[in-house]
Amino acid sequence: MHLQLREEKVFKDPVHNYVHVQDEIIWALINTPEFQRLRRIRQLGTSYLTFHGAEHSRFSHSLGVYEITRRIISQFERADYADWPQEERLVALCAALLHDLGHGPFSHSIEQAFQMHHEDWTCKIVLGNTEVGAVLRRLGEDFPAKVAAVIRKDYEHPIVVSLVSSPLDADRMDYLLRDAYFTGVNYGTIDMDRILRMLRPFQGRIVVKESGMHAVEDYLMSRYQMYWQVYFHPVTRSSEIILRQIFRRAKELHAGGYRFAFLPDPLPGLFNRDLTVEEYLLLDEALVQTAFMQWRKEPDGLLSDLCTRFLDRKLYKYVEVEVLDLEMIDDIRSAFEAAGLHPEYDLEIDFPTDLPYDVFRPDGEFQDKQILLLDRQEHLREISEVSDIVRSISGLHRGKYHLYYPDNKLASVIHRLPANIAELFEQGQ
Amino acid sequence: MHLQLREEKVFKDPVHNYVHVQDEIIWALINTPEFQRLRRIRQLGTSYLTFHGAEHSRFSHSLGVYEITRRIISQFERADYADWPQEERLVALCAALLHDLGHGPFSHSIEQAFQMHHEDWTCKIVLGNTEVGAVLRRLGEDFPAKVAAVIRKDYEHPIVVSLVSSPLDADRMDYLLRDAYFTGVNYGTIDMDRILRMLRPFQGRIVVKESGMHAVEDYLMSRYQMYWQVYFHPVTRSSEIILRQIFRRAKELHAGGYRFAFLPDPLPGLFNRDLTVEEYLLLDEALVQTAFMQWRKEPDGLLSDLCTRFLDRKLYKYVEVEVLDLEMIDDIRSAFEAAGLHPEYDLEIDFPTDLPYDVFRPDGEFQDKQILLLDRQEHLREISEVSDIVRSISGLHRGKYHLYYPDNKLASVIHRLPANIAELFEQGQ
Amino acid sequence: MHLQLREEKVFKDPVHNYVHVQDEIIWALINTPEFQRLRRIRQLGTSYLTFHGAEHSRFSHSLGVYEITRRIISQFERADYADWPQEERLVALCAALLHDLGHGPFSHSIEQAFQMHHEDWTCKIVLGNTEVGAVLRRLGEDFPAKVAAVIRKDYEHPIVVSLVSSPLDADRMDYLLRDAYFTGVNYGTIDMDRILRMLRPFQGRIVVKESGMHAVEDYLMSRYQMYWQVYFHPVTRSSEIILRQIFRRAKELHAGGYRFAFLPDPLPGLFNRDLTVEEYLLLDEALVQTAFMQWRKEPDGLLSDLCTRFLDRKLYKYVEVEVLDLEMIDDIRSAFEAAGLHPEYDLEIDFPTDLPYDVFRPDGEFQDKQILLLDRQEHLREISEVSDIVRSISGLHRGKYHLYYPDNKLASVIHRLPANIAELFEQGQ
Amino acid sequence: MHLQLREEKVFKDPVHNYVHVQDEIIWALINTPEFQRLRRIRQLGTSYLTFHGAEHSRFSHSLGVYEITRRIISQFERADYADWPQEERLVALCAALLHDLGHGPFSHSIEQAFQMHHEDWTCKIVLGNTEVGAVLRRLGEDFPAKVAAVIRKDYEHPIVVSLVSSPLDADRMDYLLRDAYFTGVNYGTIDMDRILRMLRPFQGRIVVKESGMHAVEDYLMSRYQMYWQVYFHPVTRSSEIILRQIFRRAKELHAGGYRFAFLPDPLPGLFNRDLTVEEYLLLDEALVQTAFMQWRKEPDGLLSDLCTRFLDRKLYKYVEVEVLDLEMIDDIRSAFEAAGLHPEYDLEIDFPTDLPYDVFRPDGEFQDKQILLLDRQEHLREISEVSDIVRSISGLHRGKYHLYYPDNKLASVIHRLPANIAELFEQGQ
């Protein structure tokens, strides 16, 4: 059964000023241990090592996504649009609030190291024997399944999915604004009020009134800039590499029967890829950092060195390379090995667009990646047909290879490297 | 030996836009493990449980204090004021940067629980066999002692102390602006540029040009508001109480010979109040939170319950009381005990102005608590002589008693409490 | 008959982001010539001569007051408060929009010089044979009279008056924010969202929830600072004095039969204090400035010099005096006259609190000057009973005497003044 | 002879916080009647009819350009760059301050109507027998000529020209920020601090360090957006058309011997294109608006109607057309004439890119239109070679034809128009 709160509650939020909670169910979800755990997971992983202000948590981002969704829906309700299914309000709000619930500590790095997907965990938590699950079931036995379906993007009402997950969704709007605010980088400031005013529910999806085109252009440019200025920042990438190497090394050691002096639950389960939901929820960034602190004392020099690098921010340096083929990589790795360096731990190759790159690409195969403009005659057009600027950035695939390496180690052996390779690394930063 | 960096380095900062580093020594200090550790200590302790944006670290605050000090000094140098001892620049900058180096996790609470003072630890780290110490010694064997003297406020040049520690210092200006920014509370926005323009070195201290009086009034009002809106917020106080109770309980248990399943170094040393500098530097908020996570599984119900409360943000409720005397407190504690509650853990009494309250009070005994205005005839006047508004807020000592208690426990026994006491708690929030 | 617009219209506003228009009547009022005329009247009169950004018009302020009123009412409607008379919505919105309609060019100065009151003109325009009147009459023959009554503060529903005109009304909130924005002075930034959330219609007036007390304190402090930093700025006062002297001189000349080379309608009517509404509406700041440009060529040296001073910003200098009595004034005027200066035009005495000073004073005789707090038990208390800070600023009456004079003229005769008087003016600025 | 002010003066500025004046010559220039006149010329002409906040004057913009130039130079001096000619400081500052001195009322429209160029007037004022000229001559008889040469872009030190007039100059940076601030449109917020940090004097021009590329991309995108959102806004264009028609009509009437009831100096000289510098300086927007007010009473219906339209903001409506050729235009004009409309006054055709369009185009013939990046090896590259995003926007030439017309007149004869033409205008806005 659903109830309004007797009196609206608010959270003071630096980005949206206030986050407004009007429904008892939302209030109850926020107060579950599973949602409170998001306070212990940073929104931007290791970016705080590049931008010291970026300490903000997934808790605050989740509230923000909820708030934007709430504002959109309340506007749809006020205008009484026929294409908005009013009975879907709470499904949408709950999905918006909970969509990041399954993120683990330093999410992207840990996912790569242990082949996990945070969406899976989100759905397990929503559907499982958790407090979140219990709260959701108050709205009906099938309510958790509805919320999970929105998160998995296969809900029967695609318009609800479109609100929470599309190229112009509440998630992306919140993170652009929030990450810009906390890093201090001002490329992410978008005219959210205007974009919200221009959104329309139309034939099962959220589209944009044509007169909002410039605001959308500006939003896409902001995203583009934030990707290159913040999300793909080479110093952040360097710290992610260290992190991944720590996880990799610890997993290797554990698999080889190594006995850690410090390995509290649920870390063994994580290494064995055998975690219950309950155990998964014990994972947070405090635990990971504490493990790193303790592992500095482990006899394995590689592990200990990597942990020290991460904690003391002694990151790998890098060189940028425009072109790189497999043969060159092999040559470098061989030369490294011959010089006494580790061919893998001492050389990481990174190409930013390898990442799940979600700068808007209209030629994607999935129609749900498109932003559609609605003109006065109620015709829809994909934005890059109309906007020169969007068309021109859609084809762009920037990115250079970055070779990351421990500069102190390299320095001591650089005279042993072939001249062309030594030269390459001599301009490192 | 002191060197300029070949090229200035900058940190992107949301509050000051950029933090500029021009000196090699500053760059080297920032890159020490001891300074990097401040990334793992929050600036506002548990305030993030009230204001979810307040996740910012002492690392970012320390950079901010350094930057403000740098701007003040560079302005003094540009104007070439006779009363500014130019040779003290680096002492001042280092002291500004390092003044919070000795803060522990959840600083105020842990200091109370274990009778420590962060200034002592700061001095020990500065003077000790640490990387910070080593970097400082590059400027002379006695340089660490100078920096420590500024931090202890007994440096031979009081004007340097005045820059870093006075009612209008770089420390307070940064934290007002920074805490306002990250909490989202806009009471802390002061016209720092104007205040900086109005500062003058004068006869061994920093004073303010008379025409800056309104900017100072505004700054004092902002501080006043921030104290009551943020620093003394009852929800934050509630979380500090839980935290202190956890430390108290764990210490009691440890003293009684209890064997914790999870008690990695340096926690035993903390409990025994026997920590080396090296051990102290291992303390951070990640470790404390991880310990709480693990202690949830301890058989001691009180400890386990308190840890759960902290992590899941199930804080104590409170009632506000205007008047409270010792007899009433005794009555309530007795009634609590008779009803089966714990007379201490289940009732905490808090009076915000008990705290080290540094809203400006000109009648303080220490002259260094005063803000002095410099008029055109080079006469100094204490600001409350000139400003009605400062005079009127100087005498104010607001504050009410707050009684904090676990509402679920109380609810189950409230029928056993005397009517007047039951009634008191019935309006709790 | 009242109609909603088919589609909401918006104005981009730097202060409120967007001003939303939903009612046809509001749209029609904005498009009347009488309302468009407000574009040619500055909000802050001559303040642009002190703060060059302060060029904003009463047009933008009027839209802002309307928008704040709209937000308050829409919140009252959403919460469905019993004490808000929903049928008064349009009366309130129209009164908010039109409340400054009768302002003349450089309003305060022209009012003083010609004994007019802008409220009278506002009512005449609203009630008269104007386009505004015609639009209002679409809602009923008595509708203009209702709007005029709200503006005159004698409307039958005092709660409507309270919205538009009270110590915490939409007018004051808009001008604080707007004047702070355009001057660039950051003392005027208040947490309007929070104040709006705290307003309640209660027993015929607007009161504030007790938990909004700090936000109101901050608002009153901001007003206090804006008065002293902006509204009473001595340079602005100096320019107002020049302006008033120009009007006075021109009126004198006209009364004496002087023939101006340039005196287009409706200036003769203004001088004769005999203006129809239609003529009054021809007055704007463009006309006044153009007259001054042309009057530079008039043979009357005094008038011509004053016009030049105003246009070229050659303002009077001033000295500040703490104490001043009538005898001293007489002495100075006599000394001026004896030295060949004009005893009135060359000396103006100004005491800022002579002005209609609306910093909040709870001891005022009028109950409608009070801000009332509503506690949980629905008791009302006047804010200064509860807030130390409000109580302490309520009694303050700051202000010093300022003597304004033309420094070039004075300099040439200063040797002829008695020593004590000469000395007084020697510290002028 | 050049002197520093004894104490720095500041202007409070909403965009740059403070404008700092350290040189007596700058202070003296600001206080000339010629510079003060810029207070009576709006920065954005008629844009205030679209964006009501855009009332800011060329006075404030000129101070802003000066301030940015001052900051750049002071940074060059601090870094002691060999390629910056330090003795050019004052020439550069004066040119920055004075570069817009010759703007007339509603500059672009009046220039078109009377074939004038504001740069010519700027040079005449600088070189002439004016107070500005007198102040400049204090620095040497040839000093005014130097300043004029910078403004005419043929100064012997092209680096000085580059500071004040290039695709990334102080002028453009100030107007983007200032116009964004006062309109409230947030597309113009650029990271000026970062751009300034990246500027380098290099081989006779100002270039950008390569690592500043993203900041420059963002700046060019902001300009692009501001052009389409603000500068080319169709409502603003409509008001400019009305303005131009008023000037055209008045000129026609005057040429035909028509006797205006209101035509004070220097308007006759303007119509005859025969103005001295002294007369030109009497032109301001107050005079133009006053003339329009008075001309409403002129018997010429066309003039009177146009003046009313401008003052009461009854602008022309428009329709957008993607393709338009001369034949179609002829057809429409003929149809208009046949239906009793005026073929010219009642139909204006506008194509925004007809305007001097200064969105960055690297393929321009003039090398001084290029932005050059300086890499670590001190090689220069034109930015669009390096930046995909700049390359992709460089080729863009957006723009549609807009047909402007008086909708009330058209409505009354639309049945007399051929069907295809009538249909075209039926979707007008």
From TrEMBL, chains A, B, C, D:
Gene3D superfamilies: Hypothetical protein af1432 (1.10.3210.10)
InterPro entries reported for this sequence: dGTPase-like, HD/PDEase_dom, HD_assoc_2, HD_domain
GO biological process: dGTP catabolic process
Ranges for domain HD: 58-176
GO molecular function: dGTPase activity
Domain of life, per lineage: Bacteria
Any matching Pfam family: HD_assoc_2
Protein name as annotated: HD domain-containing protein
Originating organism: Fontibacillus phaseoli
Organism placement in taxonomy: Bacteria, Bacillati, Bacillota, Bacilli, Bacillales
